[in-house]
Each structure stands twice: as C-alpha cells, then as structure tokens.
C-alpha cells in the first residue's frame, strides 16, 4: 500500500468514525488474534501491553508446568505462561511472548505468532455460559468463517494465583 | 641363249675382230664425215653472213652519204625558188592530174607559177639548169586543192617513155604531202613517178605566207653505180652471187641490183620443191636457207645456200648466194678418201685376225680334247708339251691346266680312300644319331610334362599372389580403419577429459551455488527475523493505538498496515524460503546427479582408456599384419617371378630339346643321306681312270 492509499483509508476511517458516532448502538471489541501452534485464540486487545520476541527466558523451578519461566522486561519480571501446556498438557516451542497489562501481576503468554487485531462487535461474540466455575475462555467469535476462542485472562490469573498458593 | 649352229673359236675371233674393226672404222668415218659437213656448213654460213653484213654496212653508209648529198642539192634548189615564186591567177592553166600511185586522172585548173617572173609551169629551163648544177633530179610542185595534192608542173624526172613526168601528183595520203602541209621538210625514200629515190622536199611559201608548192631534189637508188658494182663484185665461191631485192610494197620482189636480171620481179619464183623462196625471204627479212633453185636459163637445179639481210632505210633485201655442192666439195673428197682407207684397214684386219685366231684356237682345241676325256673320267692323258712350251698366256693356261689334271688325279685317289673311311664313319654316325634322337624324344616328353606342371604351378602362384594382394590391400585398409578408430578414441578420451573437467567445474559451481543459497537462506532468515520483529513492533503499536482509543485510531491504521506489510514480508520470505528449499533440493539433486554423471564419465573414461589400449594392440596387430602382408606379397611376387623365370627357362629348354630333336632327326636324316651320298661317291669314283 502506498501513502496515497493509506491517506485515503485514514480519511475514510475518520469519516466513518463520525458516522458511527451518530448512529452508535453497538460496542466494538478489539480482539488480538494470536496462534499457539496452528490454533488461533483471541484476547481483548486492551489487556495486552506489548509483544516481544526472542527475549531471554529464565527458568523457574518448582512452579506449575504451564509456567515456562520469567522474562526481564524493562526491569520488570514477567511470568511467562505456556497456554499449550495449560490446554493440551504439551510444551510450546515459541519465541514470542505476549505481555499482558495488569496493575498487580506481571503476566505474559508464550505464543507462536500474532495474527491480527480485529474489531468484533458485541453481537459477534458468543459468551460462554457456565454455572460451575469460571471457564478458561470467555467465549468465541467467528472471524471470516473461523471460530476463535477468546481467552479469559482473569481466570488464568486466578488459576495462577490459586496454583501458586497451593505450592 | 641357244646358238643354232656351232661356230669355232677361230671363226669367232676372226669374225669378231673384222666386225669390231669395221664398225670402228665406219663409226670414225661417219663421225668425221658428219663433223666435217657440219664444220663446212658453218663455215659457209659464216662466210655468207659476213658477206651480207659487209654489204649491209656498205649500203647503209652509201645511203647516208646520198642523203647528205640530197640535202645539199635541196639547199641549192631552194636558193632558186625561195622568196622568188608567185602564182599568176590571171593565167590559169589546165592539167589532167594523174595520181602517181593509182594513176587515176583528174582534170584540174590552177594558176600559173612563176619564179622571178618566169613561168615554170610546163617549162623546164629552171629545173634542167639546177639538175646540171647538182645532178640527180629536180622537180617543182604546185599545190592543188581539188583533189588535194602536189602537182608536178616542172621536173627533170622522166617517164619510161622519156617524156617529162609533169601532170602527175603526190596524193594527200602520201607522207610527203602530210609533211609539207606541216610546213616541214621531208627527207627519206620516196616513190617518184616510177621508181624509188633518196629524196628531199621543201615547201615553197607564197607572198601571203601560204604553201603554194614544193621544191624537190632526189637521187635514184638504183643509179648508185659504185655501190652496184661493189655488190655485184662480191661472190662466195666460184659460182656464188650477190644481188638486191626491192622490198617496197608496190615493187616487192623486183631485182634492184643483179648481174643479169635487174628490173625483173622474182617474187613468185619457186624452188624445185615448190616453195616461193623469194616471198619467204621478203616476209622473213633477215635469215638464211638452203633451196634447190632451177637455173632460169638452162633449167638445171642447183642447191643454193642463201643468206639475206634487210636494209629498212632503202627498202632493200641484200641476198648472198652460194652453191651448196661447191661449198661441200672438200667434204666429198674426204668421203672418198675414207672409203679407200676403210677397205684397206678391213683387209689388214682379216689377215691379222686369221693369224691370231689360228694361234689361239690350236691350244684351245687341245685343251677341249683333254676336257672331253676328263668328262669321260679319263684323267690319264696330259696336255702336249708344245702347247705348254708357248711363251704367252695360252702356254701358261695349258701348263696350269696340265697341273690341274695332275692335282685332280691325286685328289680323286685321296677322295676314293677317304670315302671308304667316311662311309664307315657315317654308318656309325647314323646309328648314334638315331639313338640320340630316341633319347631326345623321351627328354622332350619329360620336359614338356615338367613345363605343364610348372605352368599349373605358375597359374596357382599367380592366383595366390592375386589373393595375397587382396589380403594385403584389406590389411592396409584395416590398418587405416584402426588408425582412424584409434584417432577417434584419442579424440574421445580428450573429450572425456574435457567433460570430466567441465563436470568437476559444474559440481564445484553447484556446490558453490549451495553455499550461496545457504547464505541467501541466512539473509532470508535475517529478513524474516526483521519482518517478524517489525510485525511485533507493528502489533505493539497497534495495541498502543488501540489503547489510545479514538485518538490512536489513525495510528492503529498505520500500525495495522505496517503489520500487514510485515506479514506480507514474512509471507514473501516464507515463499523465498520454500523456493530456497526447492533450489537447495534441486541443487542437492543436481550435485548428486552430477556426481553420478561424474562416476559414469569416470567409468566411460576408464573404458575408453581400456578401449584405447585395446585399439593400440589392434593397431599394432594391424600394422604387423599389413607389414607381414606386404612381405608376403613381395615374397609371393618373387616366387611368381621365380616361377615365371623357371617356366620361361623350362620352355626354352623344352624348345631347345624340341629343336635338338629336330636337329637330331635332321642329323639322322643327313647322316643317312650322307651314307647314301658316300656310297654314291664311292660308286662314282670307281668310274674314274687314274692310271
């Protein structure tokens, strides 16, 4: 895409915003689509701080297996989660780390790759209804015909906290 | 040649000697007679020629002198008439003008001519006076116009009857008239009235400068007495004569000067053979001839030798005549002398021949008698002693003949003894010759058998040589093929080396390419890493933008596009990666296949090397084969040549033996013939009486 096209797109985008404001009825959720191996998952984009690559990973002993280790990001120790291990009990081999926003915890997820950031309306998100416990996934959305699960980051935090307390 | 009758040597010698002597004498006499006749004829002809030439010169000299006289006379006569002559037209005069040539008469009337006032027409005082002064004849002519001519009006010329010849005229056809009309003087011979004159005519010019007449002077040719007497005095021999014939057209054949017949025309006179000899002389002008001319008085025919010459100035032919018998009288005398001498010679020869023939024939006769006895085989009698005692060639001949008889007698005795011995030897020779002939026949048959066998062998050798030639040719051809194959293999090996080297370079290149691809791979990984990082950065930016809410909306778009670009880069690098993978696989495959090819090439090179070694051996073998074939060809050709030489020699031997057989047969035949001959000789010798 050249600059002219980009400018045109920006202009159209700003115009649409005005229109949207005028007829706003539905909330658009920004979801970050990422891959663990070949499987795509989504998180709310506003929960993600940044994505780093090839960061030095420090192994931590005596932790649950889904905790891969720690990374030092600008002086802050982030705990790196292996979601594959969490979901399928298999270790993920990846170089990218998705650092999450949190005021209290420094959490990061090991991912294979980042796919895209997509705006999904509320109607496009199918929330998971569960009576027993909070699910690992909040719900799912259909993106271009593909069903993508939206990870419940808070639940993962809770589980971590729970598991760490049990140690 | 068969002689119908027998003539003895004595008579032959006699007849021969008389015949030869007679023929010799007659030949000498004939030759002398003919030669003498020729000499006399030449002498007579030369004499007559000398006479005629002499007279011709004399007449020519006389003519020239006469012409000078006439010129002088003309000057004198002209003195009397020049400037003094006039015509008196008031006194015309009439003439019956007569053409002096045709004698035709024409009446004419002309004015009277006067000289110094004196009329000269029909008046002769002036011309007679001038004639008395100069001699000869003088005439005054007056010109007339109808007809044109010069009319003689006063003249001292007289006709035959003695009258003056006035009234006659010179016609315009005459050269005299033509000359006068050109105002010139005419000089030369002219026919005047009735005779020929040495003349001169000069025109008479009148007061008006016109030609009014002519003055004439002349000397009659025939009246030159000195000349006439001189001509008549010249004679050739006692009965010879000299005379002059007129050759002018109107008087041709007239005797101008003659001892007895002057004035007679003899043009048609003929000799005894009917030849008009005078006419012949006049037509030939110069020459000579022999004519049988009858005497005009007695009628006796005499043979005359004539010599004649033409004098054109005077129109004369001078003839010198000689009597042929008189000229040849010495010849007749010589002939008679020769006849007498010839008869005496013949008589002498007859006597001498008789003596000589008798002398010769007695010895010959005795020898002939002895030869007759020898012919009958009687060698016992010898030549008489008196014949051998002669002191000439016949005595020598008789002596030698006697010696011959004695020698022959001794020879026959020896031959008789030798014949006895020879007969026995010939018998032995005949037997030996027959044996040799038989052996030779056997040898000839054996040699022919060998020749036949050798011919078969020679044919076989030639066939073998031909085949060997073919084999040698094929061996050489094979050698050439092998050399070509060897050369091809060498080229193949060189090519294989090149291929091997090229292949090694290819492998090295492919490996280098793999290395380069690996470096590309690293670059791609770097790019991929960068793209990945960019993507992450873009995501982070997008997240930041997203977190910024509406304020980061535009930034989110930019970040999104950057991310997509990074995605696209990653996607491209992935494709590159796939391509590099494919290239690497292909390169690996290429390396593998090239290495396999290298192995095949190496195997091919090894096989080609082995093939070259094999071809090397084949080439050596082919060269050895070709050399051996050539040696075999040379050997076989030598063998064939030797065979041919042997065959040729054997044929020559066979031919020699055949010839020898023939010779032996001939020898046998000859010895048998010799045997018969010796027996015949023996029998023949038995007939001779030797003592």
Gist of the model:
The complex is a heterodimer of chains A (167) and B (691). With 167 residues, chain A is an alpha+beta fold.
Architecture blueprint of SSEs:
The complex is a heterodimer of chains A (167) and B (691).
Chain A: H1 3-22, E1 28-36, E2 39-44, E3 48-53, E4 57-58, E5 67-73, E6 76-82, H2 83-88, E7 96-100, E8 107-111, E9 113-121, E10 125-127, E11 137-143, E12 146-151, H3 153-166
Parallel strand pairs in A: 2-12, 6-8
Antiparallel strand pairs in A: 1-2, 1-9, 3-7, 4-5, 5-6, 7-8, 10-11, 11-12
Chain B: H1 9-81, E1 85-99, E2 105-115, E3 118-119, H2 125-134, E4 137-145, E5 148-155, E6 168-171, H3 175-181, E7 186-192, E8 195-205, E9 211-220, H4 225-233, E10 241-246, E11 255-257, H5 277-284, E12 287-294, E13 301-311, E14 316-323, H6 324-327, H7 329-375, H8 385-388, H9 393-547, H10 553-685
Parallel strand pairs in B: 1-6
Antiparallel strand pairs in B: 1-2, 2-3, 4-5, 4-9, 5-6, 7-8, 8-9, 10-11, 10-14, 12-13, 13-14
Helix pairs in contact in B: 1-2, 1-7, 7-9, 9-10
Commentary on this structure:
The complex is a heterodimer of chains A (167) and B (691). Chain A is α+β, with helices and mostly antiparallel strands and 167 residues long. Chain A has 3 helices and 12 strands; from the N terminus they run αββββββαββββββα. Chain A has a 6-stranded mixed β-sheet. Chain A has a 6-stranded mixed β-sheet with strand order 3-7-8-6-5-4. In chain A, a hairpin with an 8-residue loop joins strand 4 and strand 5. Chain A is globular, with a radius of gyration of 18 Å. The model of chain A is unreliable at 15-24 (pLDDT under 50). Chain B is α+β, with helices and mostly antiparallel strands. Helix content of chain B is 65%, strand content 16%. A 9-stranded mixed β-sheet of chain B has the order 3-2-1-6-5-4-9-8-7, with helices on both faces. The model of chain B has no long low-confidence stretch (mean pLDDT 83). At the A-B interface, helix 1, strand 3 and strand 9 of A face helix 9 and helix 10 of B.
């Amino acid at each position: 895409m050249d600059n002219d096209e980009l400018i045109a797109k920006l202009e159209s985008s700003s115009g649409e915003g005005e229109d949207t404001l005028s007829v706003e009825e539905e909330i658009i959720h920004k979801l970050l689509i990422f891959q663990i191996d070949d499987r795509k998952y989504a998180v709310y984009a506003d929960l993600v701080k940044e994505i780093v690559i090839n960061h030095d990973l420090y192994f931590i002993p005596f932790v649950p297996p889904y905790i891969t280790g720690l990374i030092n990001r600008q002086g802050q120790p982030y705990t790196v989660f292996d979601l594959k291990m969490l979901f399928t009990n298999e270790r993920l081999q990846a170089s990218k780390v998705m650092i999450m926003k949190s005021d209290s915890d420094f959490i990061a997820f090991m991912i294979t790759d980042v796919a895209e950031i997509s705006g999904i309306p509320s109607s496009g998100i199918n929330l998971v209804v569960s009576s027993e416990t909070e699910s690992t996934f909040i719900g799912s959305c259909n993106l271009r015909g593909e069903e993508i699960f939206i990870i419940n980051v808070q639940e993962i935090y809770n589980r971590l906290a729970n598991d760490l307390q049990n140690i | 040649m068969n002689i119908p009758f027998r003539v003895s040597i004595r008579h032959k010698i006699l007849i021969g000697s008389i015949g030869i002597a007679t023929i010799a004498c007659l030949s000498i006499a004939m030759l002398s007679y003919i030669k003498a006749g020729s000499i006399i004829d030449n002498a007579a002809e030369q004499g007559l020629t000398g006479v005629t030439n002499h007279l011709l010169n004399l007449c020519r000299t006389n003519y020239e002198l006469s012409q000078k006289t006439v010129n002088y006379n003309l000057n004198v006569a002209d003195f009397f008439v020049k400037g003094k002559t006039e015509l008196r037209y008031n006194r015309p005069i009439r003439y019956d003008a007569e053409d002096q040539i045709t004698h035709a008469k024409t009446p004419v009337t002309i004015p009277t001519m006067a000289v110094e006032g004196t009329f000269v027409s029909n008046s002769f005082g002036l011309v007679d006076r001038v004639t008395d002064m100069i001699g000869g004849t003088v005439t005054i002519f007056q010109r007339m116009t109808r007809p044109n001519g010069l009319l003689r009006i006063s003249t001292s010329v007289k006709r035959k009857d003695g009258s003056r010849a006035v009234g006659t005229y010179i016609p315009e056809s005459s050269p005299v008239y033509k000359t006068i009309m050109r105002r010139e003087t005419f000089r030369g011979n002219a026919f005047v009235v009735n005779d020929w004159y040495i003349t001169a005519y000069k025109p008479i010019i009148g007061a008006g400068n016109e030609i009014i007449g002519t003055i004439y002077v002349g000397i009659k040719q025939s009246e030159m007495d000195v000349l006439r007497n001189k001509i008549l005095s010249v004679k050739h021999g006692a009965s010879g004569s000299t005379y002059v014939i007129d050759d002018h057209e109107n008087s041709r054949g007239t005797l101008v000067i003659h001892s007895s017949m002057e004035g007679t025309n003899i043009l048609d006179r003929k000799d005894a053979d009917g030849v008009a000899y005078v006419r012949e002389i006049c037509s030939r002008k110069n020459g000579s001839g022999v004519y049988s001319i009858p005497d005009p008085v007695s009628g006796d025919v005499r043979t005359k030798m004539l010599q004649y010459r033409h004098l054109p100035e005077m129109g004369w032919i001078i003839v010198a005549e000689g009597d042929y018998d008189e000229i040849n009288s010495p010849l007749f005398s010589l002939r008679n002398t020769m006849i007498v001498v010839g008869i005496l010679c013949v008589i002498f020869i007859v006597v001498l021949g008789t003596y000589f023939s008798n002398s010769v024939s007695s010895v010959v006769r005795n020898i002939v008698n002895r030869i007759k006895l020898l012919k009958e085989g009687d060698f016992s009698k010898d030549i008489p002693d008196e014949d051998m005692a002669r002191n000439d060639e016949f005595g020598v001949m008789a002596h030698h003949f006697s010696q011959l008889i004695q020698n022959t007698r001794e020879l026959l005795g020896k031959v008789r003894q030798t014949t006895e011995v020879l007969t026995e030897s010939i018998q032995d020779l005949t037997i030996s010759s027959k044996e040799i002939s038989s052996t030779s026949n056997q040898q000839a048959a054996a040699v022919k058998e060998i020749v036949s066998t050798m011919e078969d062998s020679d044919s076989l050798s030639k066939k073998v040589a031909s085949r060997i030639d073919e084999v040698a040719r094929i061996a050489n051809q094979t050698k050439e093929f092998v050399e070509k194959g060897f050369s091809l293999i060498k080229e193949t090996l060189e090519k294989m080396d090149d291929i091997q080297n090229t292949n090694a370079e290819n492998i090295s290149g492919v490996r280098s390419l793999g290395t380069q691809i690996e470096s590309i791979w690293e670059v791609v990984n770097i790019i991929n890493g960068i793209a990945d990082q960019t993507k992450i950065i873009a995501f982070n930016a997008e997240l930041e933008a997203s977190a910024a809410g509406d304020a980061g909306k535009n930034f989110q778009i930019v970040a999104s596009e950057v991310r997509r670009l990074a995605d696209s880069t990653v996607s491209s690098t992935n494709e590159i990666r796939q391509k590099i993978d494919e290239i690497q696989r292909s390169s690996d495959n290429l390396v593998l296949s090239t290495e396999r090819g290298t192995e095949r090439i190496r195997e091919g090179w090894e096989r080609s090397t082995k093939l070259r070694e094999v071809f090397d051996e084949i080439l050596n073998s082919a060269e050895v084969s070709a050399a051996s074939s050539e040696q075999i060809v040379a050997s076989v050709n030598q063998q064939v040549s030797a065979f041919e030489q042997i065959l040729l020699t054997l044929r020559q031997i066979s031919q020699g033996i055949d010839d020898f057989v023939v010779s032996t047969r001939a020898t046998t035949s000859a010895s048998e013939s010799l045997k018969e001959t010796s027996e015949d000789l023996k029998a023949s010798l038995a007939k001779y009486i030797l003592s």
